[in-house]
Amino acid sequence: MNISPEALAELRRRLLEAEETLRAIREGEVDALVIGMADRPQVFSIGGDTEAFRAFIEVMDSGAAAVDQAGRILYANGHFKQMLKAGTNDLQGVLLDDLLPGDKARDLLVAGRPARTALEIALPSGARHLIMASSPLQLGTVAGYAITLTDVTERIRAERAEQSELIAQSIIASVNEAVLVCDGAGRVTHSNGSARAILGVDPAGARLADLLPLRPDAASGFKDTAGIVEAALGGKSLRGIEVLASQAPGPQEFLISAAPLDVPGAPGSGCVISIFDIANRKALERQQHLLMGELDHRVKNTLALVLSISRQTFRHSESYRDFEAAFTSRIHALSATHNLLSKNAWTGLSVHDVIEAETAPFAGSNRARIEMAGLDRHISSEAAIALGLISHELVTNAVKYGALSMDAGRVIVTARRDSLSHPLVIEWRERGGPAVVPPTKKGYGQTVITQSMQFAPGGDTSLDYDPAGLVCTINIPSALVLS
């Protein structure tokens, strides 16, 4: 083959250029090669660029690494190793797939385009949240990926804390009970509408010890409310401690409960205080105290009355059998009135109910023979007990000796207004029975009838031994008439 002198000279020139290029590459004088391709030139970095790349990623604040197309690590900086718990181990040649859970590496190494994935790495100090991103990289003659790791743990924690704060505020605002949240220093940081309403102020920033001091007489075991906060911060839950709120516009007596505020990673950072209005309970306690005093008084009076009935019945009884029958009958009469008063909460009774209760056991099938009219007036409990005893003695006498001892006999009980001093006069009148003869001696039953109502000023009872039938007039003073 014949080559012209010009062509030969051109080949020699190109050979010299190639030899010079190889020498320059060997000696590090060339940074890159540009090779012509069919569609576009391809640039390959050579020599010093690789070292510059390594130096650059080593000083990066985030984790960084370079991997080849198979996912094998070419280089990783110290942050990258630390974030993936690799420590000081050399990761060169390690497959990225071996360091990441699941298919995370496969998700990252996407040819021709950037990709990213989220990671959660468990460390002794707690879970760390990372964002790993990849981008195609041409490093010298090697094609691969640039990998970066960004720690977003604090951002996620902040977002979760903010979300938790919003949830906590929503819960506090939605509960019916009054709720306060205190920090580690015992100062109020949060409160709901119920708490602000009953306290009358916005308590934010106030010390709980100043806002809700302990009741002086409360047996709580604490010197002040600050001790309650301290106990709650230490993990104790407390209930039913009485406090005062002098600035409250309404009731000022409250019960509080305290519980530690459970914040992950921050134990003892605060406590939750629930406030309960006990005004109704205190009112009930005061009422109960009054009722207990009243009950004590009534029991003593009842026992004294029973004792008096026992003694007087015994004095006027001819035998033990007579005493037993009379005493039992009178105690039953007293019990009947007490039962009615108990059902009516000792607020008084109508005259009709008292007389009906006392006469019913004796009337039997002849109930129609006892006529009652105008007895709808109400009297006090003391007057009801006295009227019950009087009615019992009258009906007992009527059955034994009076109108109810004969088939044609009957009893008419009526009420009228006599005067301002005696707004209620009850008349017991018997008709159709045997002729009435005044007794030759005074028995206990007569004493009960005539003296039972005299416990109150203006109260008295009189007996008229009319031959046509006994008449008993009972004057109940205005102090004992309720309606």
Look at the structure and give the CATH class of the largest domain.
Alpha Beta
Q: Largest sheet at a glance?
A: 5 strands, antiparallel
* Uncertain stretches of 5 or more adjacent residues: 32-38, 42-48
Mind telling me the C-alpha Rg? 52 Å
Architecture blueprint of SSEs:
Elements: H1 5-26, E1 32-35, E2 42-45, H2 48-58, E3 63-68, E4 73-76, H3 78-83, H4 96-99, H5 104-108, E5 115-123, E6 126-139, E7 142-151, H6 153-174, E8 178-183, E9 188-191, H7 193-199, H8 208-211, H9 225-233, E10 238-244, E11 253-260, E12 270-277, H10 279-315, H11 320-343, E13 349-350, H12 351-363, E14 370-373, E15 378-379, H13 381-400, E16 410-416, E17 424-431, H14 444-451, E18 460-466, E19 469-476
Helix pairs in contact: 10-11, 11-12, 11-13, 12-13, 13-14
What does this structure look like?
The protein is of the alpha+beta class and 483 residues long. It folds into 4 domains: 1-27; 43-151, PAS domain (Beta-Lactamase); 175-277, PAS domain (Beta-Lactamase); 284-480, Heat Shock Protein 90. 40% of the residues lie in helices and 25% in strands. The protein is built from 14 helices and 19 strands. The protein has helices at 5-26, 48-58, 78-83, 96-99, 104-108, 153-174, 193-199, 208-211, 225-233, 279-315, 320-343, 351-363, 381-400, 444-451; strands at residues 32-35, 42-45, 63-68, 73-76, 115-123, 126-139, 142-151, 178-183, 188-191, 238-244, 253-260, 270-277, 349-350, 370-373, 378-379, 410-416, 424-431, 460-466, 469-476. Strands 4-3-7-6-5 form a 5-stranded antiparallel sheet. The chain has a 5-stranded antiparallel sheet with strand order 9-8-12-11-10, with helices on both faces. It has a 5-stranded mixed sheet with strand order 14-16-17-19-18, covered by helices on one side. Helix 11 (320-343) runs antiparallel to helix 12 (351-363) and helix 12 (351-363) packs parallel to helix 13. The protein is rod-shaped, with a radius of gyration of 52 Å.
